[in-house]
Specification:
Elements lengths: L10 H10 L6 H8 L11 E9 L4 E11 L14 E7 L9 H6 L4 E3 L5 E3 H20 L4 E9 L1 H16 L4 E7 L5 E2 H11 L4 E6 L12 E2 L8 E3 L13 H8 L19 H9 L9 H21 L14 H15 L1 H17 L13 H26 L3
Parallel strand pairs: 3-6, 6-7, 7-9, 9-11
Antiparallel strand pairs: 1-2, 2-3, 4-5, 8-10
Helix pairs in contact: 1-7, 4-5, 5-6, 8-9, 9-10, 9-11, 10-11, 10-12
Organism: Parendozoicomonas callyspongiae
Pfam family, one: Lipase_3
InterPro entries: AB_hydrolase_fold (IPR029058), Fungal_lipase-type (IPR002921), Sec_MonoDiacylglyc_Lipase (IPR051218)
């Protein structure tokens, strides 16, 4: 098994796992997948997992991933090889299950995870349907395992993230490593921060192409781990709306150099979370280009900035109140409208944010705060979410026919 001196999978191997795991729907191809030199040759030391995906109306159970022990390895430098590695890999979306995966992807809501943190309801539901299978595998080989590697692309990356948090909480002596490619955001900021602390930032490898739309969804308050940090940003020339940058085969091509290390990958990417940068963008009179992926990143950063600004001075809880008919757009609209009503200073920032969003969506801009009713704000936010989701769906559609 090829690992670095810090007991991490090398980028090429992590990417090959995330690419080839799509074969879990075919029994013959699963055997070929498990013949990789990364895995133990002993069949009894692996488990193919199935998951329930979709909703109450369209629900199916099919192959979703693999748990397996890593192969024995030769000593590399001063690397500790006295304990074995476990590898847990999850596939991304497929059309083979009546589009049930798509329902899980875009079932955007929040619920409390098994570790007590706010996460995406669709992703968490898939994880929970596999939790007992993962637990059985880990318990069966508990004394053999010191390192657990969780890997996935797209939807599989979100599930790998939630899985890594659960494993670290329930098997605290294990060293858990996370590798995701083009994954959507799996939970709120509280989840991302706790995950980063539990695993440590060096063990979280989030890889994304600059024009891949899927890592941009869902919008704030969903965020990525590690925090602080931006992940491994890879340049991509593919157009945002073509969604080609989401293809796992392209991700593999970007990291396939066997000499590449995690520290050597990626382009410098300045964070857009700094208050002064976001304020400058919100206050600028420049035009907004909806075909530039940076536009949607700035909108997300602006939404985060304004929401946090309002929450600091009001008694509203961001994580409460998602029961019943309250949607994410409803909740954010309530907070933004509260900011308008609270003070003139907050009102200015809400107006600026909504103007940027409406311009990006090709809507007529509302110039006055009184025009931004709860209904209008909710409509704009829902339209924004639908726009981002449409691009994300196209990206996912492009990878479902491997």
């Amino acid at each position: 098994m090829n690992v670095t001196e810090n007991n991490h999978l090398i980028p090429k191997d992590a990417a090959s796992l995330a690419r080839d795991i799509y074969a879990v729907q075919d029994e013959f191809l699963v055997k070929a997948f498990l013949n990789k030199p990364l895995f133990s040759p002993k069949g009894r030391e692996k488990k193919t997992m199935s998951a329930e995906v979709g909703s109450r109306l369209i629900n199916t159970k099919d192959g979703f991933g693999v748990c397996a022990l890593g192969a024995e390895q030769e000593k590399v430098g001063n690397q500790d090889t006295s304990n074995r590695h476990a590898i847990i890999v999850f596939r991304g979306s497929t059309t083979a299950n009546m589009y049930a995966d798509w329902i899980s992807n875009f079932r955007i809501g929040v619920e409390t995870s098994s570790t007590g943190l706010p996460v995406h309801i669709g992703f968490n539901s898939i994880f929970m349907s596999m939790k007992d299978q993962i637990e059985k595998f880990l318990n069966q080989h508990n004394n053999k395992i010191k390192y657990v590697h969780c890997v996935g692309h797209s939807l599989g990356g979100a599930i790998a993230t939630i899985t890594s948090d659960w494993i670290k909480c329930n098997y605290s002596t294990k060293e858990v490593k996370l590798y995701t490619f083009g994954a959507p955001k799996p939970g709120f900021e509280w989840f991302a921060r706790k995950l980063t602390t539990r695993l440590n930032s060096e063990s979280v490898h989030r890889v994304f192409h600059s024009t891949d739309p899927v890592p941009m969804i869902p919008l704030y308050p969903f965020v990525h781990a590690p925090i602080p940090g931006t992940g491994t940003h890879l340049y991509s020339s593919e157009a945002l709306l073509s969604a080609d940058a989401h293809d796992m085969r392209l991700y593999f091509d970007s990291v396939k150099d066997p000499e590449a290390s995690w520290s050597s990958l990626g382009d410098p990417l300045p964070s857009t979370s700094y208050d002064k940068l976001v304020e400058k963008w919100l206050a600028s009179d420049g035009s907004v280009n909806p075909f530039n992926p940076k536009t949607w990143e700035w909108i997300n950063a602006g939404l985060e900035y304004v929401i946090k600004k309002i929450l600091k001075v009001t008694a509203i809880s961001l994580q409460a109140g998602f029961s019943g008919c309250i949607t994410l757009a409803d909740k954010l609209a309530l907070i933004l409208r509260k900011g308008i009503e609270y003070s003139a200073k907050l009102s200015i920032w809400v107006v600026r944010l909504m103007a940027k969003i409406m311009q990006a969506l090709g809507m007529k801009i509302k110039q006055k705060a009184e025009e931004l009713t709860h209904f209008v704000i909710r409509y704009v936010l829902q339209t924004l979410m639908n726009k981002i989701s449409t691009v994300g769906k196209q990206a996912i559609k492009n990878i479902t026919k491997y």
